[in-house]
Amino acid sequence: MTYGYGISCQLSTQRIIQFTLLVSKSFILSMQPKESMSTSGDFYSPTEITKEQLLRVHTPKYLKSLKWSANVAGIAEVPALILMPNFTVQSGYLRPMRYQTAGSILAGKLALEYGWAINLGGGFHHCCSYKGGGFCPYADITLLILRLFELESVRVKQAMIIDLDAHQGNGHERDFKNVDSVYILDMYNASIYPKDNEAKPSIRCGVELRHMTEDAYYLGQLNRCLMQAVSEFKPDVVIFNAGTDILKGDPLGNLAITADGVIERDLMVFSTFRALGIPVVMLLSGGYMKSSKRVIVDSIVNLRRQGWLRAN
Fold first, then answer.
1. pLDDT reported for residue 22
2. What parts of the sequence cross the membrane (predicted)?
3. Cβ atoms within 10 Å, residue 238
């Protein structure tokens, strides 16, 4: 069965359910034990987001639609979910995704406190208030930003989304259409899902990449966009959607960025905004190869070595 990403999807629920843990002031200790002297205080676990909190962004009609397994199967792109009772879909798929969504919101709070935070999950950038898709059942980026606007209104009046997943972030782009207080920078492969022309006007600085784009062009365009964004907008917080589906060989991204290119990308984003004293929230978003795990760890280790993962 073919879904929005345009592939015959054989992904299992295990592949798209990631355990959500929040890291702040440190990095992934369990994967790099020799590199860290971390303590348990460096790691945070969110509580499950409530229906009332989800309703701050999502329509009642959309949340009700998730009670039908066929609808969730389309969003998750896992056909087998159609055959499962909804209570199994809720506990085995949607509940873990609600924890990841809560992790993104908690990351925003911690980033204001420490200067940065990383949610080991989240980045559901295809979901908007009334529609899910592309493995994204909840609009965690929108929820995160609105939470900061409402509960941290003195400190956070403007937010910037740096979306560097291989796919267009059409969910948050639909949610923040004509919202001047949110600046969106989006670099994505224009030839793949979602090709959402209606969402594009929300992008303030955009780069439409071609298949098999390599490091030199990619990093050059990112540098140009970062400089443009900093000159045009003064954010109080940056949401960095750091998908690793840009890696060469990723079956869904169709780009050709090396592991070193991803590490340099992450360094460019953190160094640009942390040097200005602007908190950064990093979300892992897409990445569909086993090698993505190693690249993420190496990138976070590099950020720490470079001094960008320190408390304010």
1. 39
2. none
3. 25
Q: Which residues of the chain have pLDDT under 70?
A: 1-41
Is 172 a known active-site residue?
Answer: no
Distance CA 74, CA 248 (A): 27
Structure tokens at 65: 């639609």
Q: What span, in angstroms and rounded, lies between the C-alpha atoms of 209 and 164?
A: 11
Does a structural domain hold residue 7?
Answer: no
Sheet holding 43-44, edge to edge: 43-44, 22-23, 116-119, 280-283, 237-241, 159-163, 182-189, 205-209
| Domain range enclosing 84 | 13-305
Token output for 3: 């879904």
Give a yes or no: residue 1 inside a domain: no
pTM, rounded to two decimals: 0.90
pLDDT in tens, 36-87: 434 455 788 889 999 999 999 999 999 999 999 999 999 999 999 999 999 9
> Any residues with CB less than 8 A from the CB of 34 and at least 6 apart, and which?
none
Instruction: List the CATH number of the domain containing 71.
Output: 3.40.800.20
The number of distinct structural domains making up the chain is 1
Tell me which residue of 104, 108, 180 sits closest to 136, measured CA to CA. 104
Q: Are 137 and 76 in contact (CB under 8 A)?
A: yes
Position 10 scores a pLDDT of 36
- Alpha-carbon Rg of the chain, whole angstroms? 18
Tokens at residue 175, please? 């949610």
Q: What is the pLDDT of residue 111?
A: 95
Q: Which of 58, 126, 167, 172 is catalytic?
A: 126
Is 97 a member of any domain?
A: yes
